[in-house]
Amino acid sequence: MSGEKTYKKTTSSTLKGAIQLGIGYTVGNLTSKPDRDVLMQDFYVVESVFLPSEGSNLTPAHHYPDFRFKTYAPLAFRYFRELFGIKPDDYLYSICNEPLIELSNPGASGSLFYLTSDDEFIIKTVQHKEAEFLQKLLPGYYMNLNQNPRTLLPKFYGLYCVQSGGMNIRVVVMNNVLPRSVKMHYKYDLKGSTYKRRASRKEREKSCPTYKDLDFQDMHDGLYFDTETYNALMKTLQRDCRVLESFKIMDYSLLLGVHVMDQTTKDGEVVDAAADRRPISQKVLYSTAMESIQGDGKAGEAVTTDDTMGGIPARTHKDEKLLIFLGIIDILQSYRFIKKLEHSWKALVYDGDSVSVHRPGFYANRFLKFMSTRVFRKIHKSFMILGVCYICGWHSE
To answer: What is the largest CA-CA distance in the chain?
Structure first.
């Protein structure tokens, strides 16, 4: 295929095929293992299978070069998938049934991103250091999820490695924060930092650019939520940031998608979100923004409908109706020596407090302050019309 991307000398189509074959084999293989509690040693298990192109008594024949497929902590990740309500058959169907869709990468990481055709999962290539860091993170991640299954942290569903032609390509499977089935009128990558935090000219020329902190301040006077939703959102963000701080993690971002419910066309005709909605036969995402902040109460269930697609209802200061989709991304950056050096150098040249790379505690506090005061705001009066609060869907008796 002309112009096809290569990553570590492997074409994108070969990598996609190897990922699907490998996950198909490893998840199928897991079904024979009985359910049991996750033990400490489960986090350090690495399973490996060789998939020759001619096939074997264990693996199917395929059109790609021979490769080895490694699965990290298979039982631990199976537990995480169950915790998020993902059945093995659904996971396999999502990843293996249709070709994976390659996404353009908005970041500077050079990673490849693939999306499953049903919009559920993102598969991202990660560097060796990031994969190693995720492995070390797993026991703490497990403990945190048991205490707080509602979180805006990335939901990791699997960590794998494709070995072919002397190359190791590591990939992680995660939740998809921004569903394609809902049009994102605005997209932001926010860190709570101001230094160089504006989208590049090249980024702005894209049909759906990913803007940054200074752009947000230029374009929005904050996003407004009813008190209950605002408090739930901030409580979740605070807890997640403290977890990241305890793991010495920083430089993460909040990925934020804004869907404007009633976009007016050029003719003045109002178009509702229905036009952008996914087919009714498809489920709402496993881990929606609303579920991530609501906890196990009935409120979350009531609001996560086909109308909201799991987004969080909000308003602009002009009272436009919005749906907000969000999640914390890029948490596999430990505050290692190299980052400390980077910060010391930048602090000499610029104002140290405006630089994105900072000590984990300072980073978390600055991030939370920006989110709670500049990005998310509380509505001080409900929009009550005929006994219905249009923000939270509450009906008065």
So the answer is: 68
Threshold 0.90, pTM exceeds: no
Rounded to whole angstroms, how far apart are CA atoms 220 and 98? 38
Q: Which residue has the tokens 């308003």?
A: 315
CB atoms under 10 Å from CB of 325, counted, come to 25
- Helix, strand or coil, per DSSP, at residue 37: coil
Residues of the chain whose pLDDT is less than 50? Answer: 1-2, 264-285, 296-304, 335, 337-338, 341, 348, 352, 382-388, 390-391, 393-397
pLDDT of 241? 93
Torsional sign, CA 227, 229, 230, 231:
positive
Provide the 10 A C-beta neighbour count for residue 40.
Answer: 9
- DSSP character at residue 249: B
Round to whole Å and give the CA distance between 351 and 353: 6
At 119, give phi and psi (nearest 5°).
Answer: 80, 0
Q: At what angle do helices 74-83 and 88-96 cross, to 10 degrees?
A: 100
Cα–Cα distances in angstroms (integers) from residue 36 to residues 23, 79, 140, 142, 146, in the given order: 21, 9, 19, 15, 15
pLDDT of residue 350: 52
Burial group, residue 214, by CB count within 10 angstroms (0-12, 13-18, 19+): middle
Q: Which residues contact 186 (CB under 8 A, 6 or more apart)?
A: 211, 219, 220, 256, 257, 258
214: three-class secondary structure by DSSP: helix
According to DSSP, the residues that pair with 395 across neighbouring strands are 388
User: Which pLDDT value is given to residue 99?
Assistant: 92
Give residue-wise pLDDT tens across range 247-283.
888 889 999 999 998 764 434 444 444 444 444 334 4
What token pair was written down for 396? 């008065």
Cβ neighbours, 10 Å, residue 378 = 15
Token pair in block for residue 6: 């290569």
